[in-house]
Write a structure and sequence with these properties.
Layout (H helix, E strand, L loop, with lengths): L3 E2 L16 E4 L10 E3 H6 L17 E4 L2 E4 L19 E3 L2 E3 L1 H8 L14 E3 L2 E3 L18 E4 L2 E4 L3 H4 L14 E4 L2 E4 L17 E4 L2 E4 H4 L2
Antiparallel strand pairs: 1-2, 2-3, 4-5, 6-7, 8-9, 10-11, 12-13, 14-15
């Protein structure tokens, strides 16, 4: 190709400003918008430095990926034990290039059961799960979304609810959450109330009388 006049550009080889000079396009493979060189660098470097080996990446073996040019054989997954070619597809993570598999390992959410990356799964209890991992911790059977609950860091089927925790001393229902121990018994927080005024005691001071709790103000009335 004949020399072409360029505007305010810099040589991809020596980075010399080409505003008033003559530049050449390295167009061995006919691609448009290839790197621009001064007359000297076109013959000596034949391309910008490769993002991997730093040697000149010449056409037709130069590929643009991310912010760098690469030899086709240098454009591989950054995972040390992978080196899968990325000529057709790549993913950028923390400035490095990865194949689809290793990109998923870095970006995917982890399963609430096996703690391995989840590509496709179920979202429940503010977590994600592989379909095969969403099982009742007691029965080992699969669980239908909406028919389970979270208790003591475990997923349990709704049918196991009555067995999952001892009954509340106040209402008799399983004390699964928002619970406290007082007077040697287990209560839902909302069920631990003053025996006189029936107000929720919570973290307030109370007095025990005949095995029942009283707020201090009520006990001294």
């Amino acid at each position: 190709r004949d020399p072409v006049e360029k505007g305010d550009l810099r040589c991809a080889g020596c980075e010399r400003q080409l505003a008033e000079g003559i530049a050449f396009e390295n167009d061995k493979d006919g691609q448009e918008n290839g790197p621009i060189f001064c007359a000297d660098c076109r013959e000596t470097t034949l391309g910008p430095p490769c993002g991997n080996c730093c040697e000149p990446a010449a056409w037709p073996d130069a590929l643009l990926a991310g912010d760098s040019w690469w030899h086709r054989w240098c454009l591989v997954c950054s995972e040390s034990d992978c080196n899968a070619p990325l000529e057709d597809e790549y993913f950028v993570h923390d400035g490095k290039l990865f194949c689809e598999h290793h990109n998923m390992l870095r970006t995917a959410q982890l399963c609430g059961q096996c703690e391995k990356p989840v590509n496709e799964g179920i979202k429940a209890l503010d977590r994600v799960w592989h379909k095969g991992c969403l099982k009742c911790a007691v029965t080992g059977k699969g669980i239908t979304p909406g028919e389970f609950f979270w208790h003591d860091q475990r997923v349990l089927a709704a049918s196991e609810q009555d067995k999952a925790a001892p009954p509340c001393a106040g209402c008799g229902a399983p004390a699964l959450s928002e619970r406290l121990y007082a007077l040697g018994r287990l209560f839902h927080r909302k069920c631990f109330v003053c025996s006189h005024c029936r107000a929720e005691i919570g973290g307030r001071r109370f007095v025990e009388h005949d095995g029942e709790p009283y707020l201090e103000g009520c006990f001294h009335k």
